[in-house]
Amino acid sequence: MDLWIPITLFFLLGLSLWLFFQTLLAGEDVRLQRASEYLEVQKRVETPSFRQRVLSPLGKALVNVLSRLYPPRTLERLDEYCDRAGRPLGLTGKSLAVSKVVSAFLLWVTATLVFRGKLVLPAAILSACFGYVLPGLWLTSRIRKRVELARAQLADAMDLLVVSVEAGLGLDAAIQRVANRFRHPLGELFSKAMAEISLGSPREAAFRGIAEALPFDEIKSFTASIIQAERLGTSIAAVLRSQAAGLRKRRRLRAEEHARKAPVKILFPLVLFIFPSLFVIILGPAMIQIMENLKP
To answer: Which of 76, 128, 153, 159 could make a disulfide contact with 108, Cβ separation 3.0–4.6 Å?
Structure first.
C-alpha cells in the first residue's frame, strides 16, 4: 500500500512534465509557423508586381509625353473638370488629356480596319473626333450625376444645420456634424472645407471652394449667404433658416415640374408601343371577319 503513493506521484509528475513539454513544443511550432507566414506575406508585399514594375512606369511616361501636346491652361481647366466630377478612377487633367488622345487613336484605327474604299477617310475622321470627345462626355455625365446627388442631399443637410445651430453648436461644429452624417459628395466637400479652415485657410475661401466644386444655384446661394452673414455679423441661425425654407420650396417646385413633364414623356411610348398593340387586339378580329366576308 505504501508503494502505490510514490508510484502514483511519480506517474503524475511524469504526466505533468510530458504535457508541459508537449505544450511548449506546440507553442514553438505555432510561433514558427506564424513567423514563416509573416515572412511569406512580407516577401509577397515587398516583391513588386508586373503592373508596378512595368505598366505603371510606362503609363506615367506616356502621360508625361502626350500631355505636352496641351497648353498648361488647358490642362488646368481639365483638372478643374476632374475635380468637379470627384476625380473618378483617380483622373487628373493630364490623364484626361491623354485618355482623349488614346481614345481618338483607338477609334481611328478601328475605323480604318472596319471600313474599306472611299468610306475609310470620312469614317476614320468621324471616329477620331468621336473618340476625342468621348472621355469628356463621360466626365460631363459624372459631373451631372454628382450635382444631382448633391442637390438632393442639400435640403436635408440644411435642415440638420439649422437644428444644430439652434441647439447651440457653432457653425464649424454644425458643418462638421453634417459632414459626418452625409456621404459623397456633399459630406466630402464639407469635410474638405473644415480641414482647410483648421489649417488656417479663410472661411470665405473654403466656402467658395465648395461652390466651385459643385456649381449649381442652391449651393452658390448657400455659400454666398454664409459669407455675407460672416461679413455683416448677422445671425447665422436666421440665415440658415431662410436658406432651408428656400430649398424646401425649390424642391417642391422641382417635383411639381417633373410631375407636369410626366404626361409629355409618357405620350411617345404610348403612341409608338401601346396604341399599335391595342389597335391590333381590338381591330384585328374585326378586320379578319371583314376580309372573310369580302371574299367571293
So the answer is: 128
Amino acid letter, 191? S
Task: Provide the 3-class DSSP secondary structure of residue 262.
Answer: helix
Domain end marker among 117, 145, 173: 145
Q: Which residues 6+ apart lie within 8 Å of 158 measured at CB?
A: 222, 240, 243, 244, 247
Which parts of the chain fold into alpha helices (H)? 4-46, 50, 56-66, 72-84, 93-114, 120-166, 171-181, 186-198, 203-213, 217-232, 236-269, 275-294
Q: Name the residue type at position 279.
A: F
Residue 251 near residue 155, CB atoms below 8 Å: yes
Question: Is 157 in the same domain as 229?
Answer: yes
Distance CA 99, CA 43 (A): 35
Work out the average pLDDT over 173-198: 86
Which letter, b or e, does each residue of 159-172 get, where b requires 16 or more Cβ atoms within 10 Å of its Cβ? bbbbebbeeeeebe
Enter the C-alpha cell of residue 157: 443637410
pLDDT tens readout for residues 91-118: 888 888 888 888 888 888 888 888 887 8
Which of 121, 145, 169 lies at the terminal end of a domain, its last residue? 145
pTM: 0.67
Helix axes 236-269, 120-166, angle to 10 degrees: 140
CB 105 within 8 A of CB 128: yes
Average pLDDT, the chain: 78
Are both 172 and 112 inside the same structural domain?
no
Three-point CA angle 216, 222, 224, nearest 5°: 95
